[in-house]
Amino acid sequence: MGTTQLESVPEPKYWHLKTVLSQALDSEFSVGEILPNERDLAARFGVARATLRQALEQLELEGRLQRRRGVGTTVAPPRMGVSLGTGPHTWPGGPEDAWQPVDCSAAVPPAAVAEALGTGDEPVHIVRRSRVSHGRPVAAELLYVPLSSVPELSAIDAPSGAARARAVLRELQRVELERQENAVELGSAGADDAKELDRLPGAPVLVVTTRFVAAGHTAALSVATYRADTCRLTFGDAGGVEIDAGPQRRAS
Fold first, then answer.
1. Pick from 151, 100, 106, 142: which is nearest to 125 by CA?
2. Integer Cα distance of 252 and 242 in angstroms
3. Which of helix, strand or coil describes residue 35?
4. How is residue 135 annotated by DSSP?
5. 250-251 and 217-227 as β-strands: parallel, antiparallel, unpaired?
6. How would DSSP label each residue in 209-221?
7. What CA–CA distance (Å, rounded) separates 73 from 92?
8. What letter would DSSP give residue 95?
9. What is the Cα–Cα distance from 121 to 130, expressed in whole angstroms?
């Protein structure tokens, strides 16, 4: 590779470098490929290593790069599409569901959740699920289900853990779902979410809250936390928009 000097620009040097590096990722590297070390990259672009690190950190924050301990900096796979379309509504845990049950417990939910469910101080089933894409965790979910929504659930058949979570999801499938309502907000990862998503506390996340309505009342409430650097939201019936991000990289 030859040496590419940066032109003098009014914007911060690391930000301009980020743009140049992003173009290089599209034209010269493929998903999963390891980038040259910092010394070689800094020499190529004629910048200090501190400037280079700032640019790399920004690209990692935007989901273009992954820093993997013991491996180095690699080109990240495309962002995972999270559909919030207006198509058929379904209960969580259906055949097309990409989430994996982790465990299930019975506890009194946070006050805001209890108010939305109308359960007061009563305990509810709290199903914890995770979602993985390209071998990395991209989302964590807490699904709150009132005991009255799954009255036939047997503690004998599925006493605890992932088996209990699957049993709750299976019982929900028996209920006729009227509709679901989604709300999205930008947030920051708390300690628990950060650990589960392999991010630092305070990292940006997308929080998608889904209310499942049956028989005129809220039968379940999902609070899903997505890594903002690996996910993008899609709207409409099609549920996805293809974006050409370069010859080596296409978002799905």
1. 106
2. 6
3. coil
4. T
5. unpaired
6. EEEEEETTEEEEE
7. 35
8. T
9. 27
Q: Give the angle 117-175-238 at the CA atoms, nearest 5°.
A: 90
For residue 14, give Cα distances in angstroms to 6, 10, 132, 137, 228.
10, 11, 31, 29, 22
Helix (H) or strand (E) holding 15: helix 13-28
Which among 141, 156, 143 is positioned nearest to 106, based on CA atoms? 143
What pLDDT score was predicted for residue 236? Answer: 61
Whole-angstrom distance between the N-terminal and C-terminal Cα of the chain?
A: 30
Higher-scoring residue by pLDDT: 10, 17? 17
Exposure string of 182-206, with b = 16+ CB inside 10 Å and e = fewer, is: beeeeeebeeebbebbebeeebebb
Q: How far is CA 204 from CA 189, 201, 230, in A?
A: 6, 9, 11
Tokens (6 digits) for 221: 């409430």
**Per-residue model confidence as pLDDT tens digits over 168-181:** 999 999 999 999 99
pTM assigned to the model: 0.69
Query: Cα separation of 145 and 211, whole Å?
Result: 11
C-alpha 10/C-alpha 14 separation (Å) is 11
User: What would the two tokens of residue 230 be?
Assistant: 């690996």
Q: Are 211 and 180 in contact (CB under 8 A)?
A: yes
201-242 per-position pLDDT tens digit = 888 888 999 999 999 999 999 999 998 877 777 776 544 433
